[in-house]
Structures are given as C-alpha cells and as structure tokens.
C-alpha cells in the first residue's frame, strides 16, 4: 500500500492548507488564498478610524482653518491636509457624518474622498 508523502511526514496534515474560521463555519483553503485574505483583513483594520475628505485647499490659510475646525470635533486624533491632492485625512474614532458636516461648514464643496482605480 503506497502512502502519500503528507501522510508519511505530516500524519495527514497538509502544511500548505490553512483553516479559515468564518461565521459559524470553517473550511480549508490554499496557503496563497489564506495569506491574501489575511493581508486584506490587515488593510481593513488599518483603514478603520481614517476618514478621507476631498476639499478645495487653495492656500495655507485654508489649511490652518480646516485643521483648527476639524481638530475641535470629539474623537478626532489628528488632521492631515494635502494641498496638491486637495485631500484631508482625519484620524481617530470620530463619526464620519459629523466630520463631513463640519467640513461642509468650512467649505460647501467638501465631500468624501472617492478612490479612482
């Protein structure tokens, strides 16, 4: 009777398969899929707490005004402004709708940042 190399060396365990625990169920997937999924989950975790806004920023005065007003909101840890991209990044656990509402009080053309692929 011929034995599979995995059975011989790993007692039936395949080191190239990963077990995925989903909602009330689990299944096996290949190592590449498991690594890709782990990377996607890390990216989603990194994105939590980051609000990206598109706002016209024409000068240093606009940047200072945006920074000063958004920093006063509850839950805002930091505010970063990029004048070249016309982008504002708000970090913290603030409510995105409240941040957008405050940004629209500063400039009515403020909106959530839309990623273009």
From TrEMBL:
Keywords: Metal-binding. The keyword Oxidoreductase does not apply. Signal peptide: none annotated. GO terms for molecular function: metal ion binding. The keyword Metal-binding applies. Residues 48-111 form the HMA domain. Pfam families: HMA. CDD domains: HMA. PANTHER family: COPPER TRANSPORT PROTEIN ATOX1-RELATED (PTHR22814), HEAVY METAL-ASSOCIATED ISOPRENYLATED PLANT PROTEIN 23 (PTHR22814:SF336). This is HMA domain-containing protein.
């Amino acid at each position: 009777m011929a034995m599979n190399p995995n059975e011989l060396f790993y007692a039936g365990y395949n080191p190239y398969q990963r077990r995925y625990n989903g909602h009330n169920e689990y299944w096996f997937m290949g190592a590449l899929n498991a690594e890709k999924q782990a990377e996607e989950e890390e990216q989603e975790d990194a994105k939590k707490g980051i609000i990206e806004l598109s706002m016209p920023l024409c000068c240093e005065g606009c940047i200072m005004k945006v920074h000063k007003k958004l920093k006063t909101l509850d839950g805002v840890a930091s505010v970063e402004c990029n004048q070249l991209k016309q982008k504002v990044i708000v970090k913290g656990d603030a409510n995105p709708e409240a941040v957008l509402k405050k940004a629209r009080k500063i400039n009515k053309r403020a909106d959530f940042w839309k990623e273009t692929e």
